[in-house]
Amino acid sequence: MSPAIIWLRRVFTDSHFFFALKVLLAMGSLLLPGWWLEQTPTAVTLTLGAMAGALSEVDQDPKGRLRHLLLSLLCFFGAISLVSLLIDSPLLFGPLLVLSTFVLILMGAWGPAASTLGFGTLLVSLYAMQGHADSPSFWYQPLLLTLGAAWYGLLSWLVLLVWPYKQVHEQLAQCYFALSRYLLEKSRFFDSPEEQHQHLRHQLAQLNIQLVSALETTKLMLNRRIQGRGQQEQELGRLLALYLQVQEMHERATSSHYSYRQLNQDLKQVDVLAGYQTLLVELGEACYRLGYAILTHNAYQHSKRIAWELSALQDQLDYSHLKRHYPRSLLSPMKFLGRNMAHLHQALLRAETLTRRQPLSEDVSVELARPEPVPFWPKFKALLHPNSLLFRHGVRLSLCFALGYSLIAALELERGYWILLTILFVCQPSFSATRKRLLQRTLGTLGGIVAGIPLLMLFPSVGAQLVILLLCAFVFFTQVKVYYSWAVGFVTLFVLLAFNLQSGVAEPVFLPRLFDTLAGCALAFVAVWFIWPDWQRRHLPRLMADAMEANAHYLAAIARQFALGRHDELDYRLPRKQAHLADNQLALAWQNIRVEPVPRHWLNLCFDIAYRNHALLSYLSTLGAHRMHSAPLQDEQIRQLVTRLLASAQALRREEVLPTYPPLPSTNAGTETDDEWLILSHQLLGHITLLVNDLYQLARGFRQQTPTEDAPGPRLG
Which of 98, 113, 5 is nearest to 59 (CA)? Predict the structure, then answer.
């Protein structure tokens, strides 16, 4: 196959490119006939509706997508009609705008589809406000904006009928790409100096966030397609098997058999360390190739070199020279690390078979986790509580819209609704996310305006501007999930051109839009700082409680597997997933708290908690990865660890002072035995015990305004 064909296949299977291509096709089919019939303002209005429809699209099966589309069109038409009816009466329109914004934000409590629908309804309403001055009749905007969204929705639905599993392929490939990045980063531990290990731990925590997020998104996609199917399709069964495969590989990839810092000091055999590193690199690259094969619907070909390298590493570990010079307490973990890599190799071989599109020998019948349905009224009451994140965000955004609309009315800015449009995109639930969007939005808008002035001087004709409009929309959708600042620059130019072509103005008005953007950014920043600010410090005790409770359930599930036998049913996979999700929330909290105005003590405390919890989860993953052993774990020690973690979580949730329990004993028993598994399990339980003791002491620090004198320092690499 020629390089050009390979490149084209890669481009067309890229999720962002394919999405942008759908939008380009929908918009082009509206703009080009409109330009040919000299109805450019009408075509541009239809295009704005298509843009809103694309931004409010969610992943669903064909039946669910059609149902969501019909509901979206109904909401769009009703919202735009209310805007057209009341916008000239500020005393009625202002309160309605604030109230409807609050309600649409609260819709997010009912899932991603409802959240996206609420955002899309707000967006299309703002488009209607901005274009109201150029609307020739009452029904002009409600009909055209809704028809534009309907046209894009219908086109996207037809594409979904032709390729019903395309988005699942794309998202599953992202799981393997994320796993590849994780393994490649982890390989750097074997040749990096000790002072870089903390930075590498931080990088791994960030990559684990991406990996767990990709796994959770894939699970939701598969769940939506499994529900309501009597007999599972072969393609769906194959994708489900590949998803379960990457889940198991994730547990093995995140495991820690030995402190890497200590390993570099204790194991002086450079060849052995290089062997581990080479294997991790090869496995990471193999995961990338597997993801690419899933993305392009090709068969994956596993490298034969990995089997040879595994054999060479095993020979090195069995070499009598190593046995004479190194204790079993070092060699046993190294052997299990090699076996762990061998299991990753076997998993890739199984994935090779799954991608060959041969008929499956039997249906893959596995239960995936689904959230328990919560009755409407209990969820509604919890949603209206001041501690609810959505409630706070709804109040903040509504008041911010009230300030923006008051500014528009006071200054009589007929086209000042760009201020509200900026607020919608910039104002996020947390301070850190708003601050990031603030900078990106400002830089992107400035870039779009600066680039637009010379560009439109060179291409002043309507036809040229329509081409630029289409290109800007296309680039926006390819970059919005990757480089937001670049995407904002292109969408700024898109919306500027769209509103000017819609109004028939010869030249776009740049400076008023720049003022509107700066005003919207300023209002969003003031709102997120002063109106019920959602500082991460407030959530840290709850997040730590969630993590400790999830780790306790994960450890208990692992112990049950040793007692009853290994299996990958839901009662094991769910605690494992919850532990990783809780760990991700702690890592994200530390990321966010670094940009918030908090005392240094809280920043250090959050880092220590996130650092130790991630190390604890790594050792738990090692126990889980080797749970096929018939040798039991130390039941009493497991019980003590689970009890201590659950008691700590319960006290944190109740905002109680944690009792002064003595540290759990960390035994070194088993180091003199010849049983390799006993050596490894005792070492792992020793590390886990030390980390649980550290986390317990850190949890007690929440009641203190200054760091505790006995707060433990970083111990584990």
Answer: 113
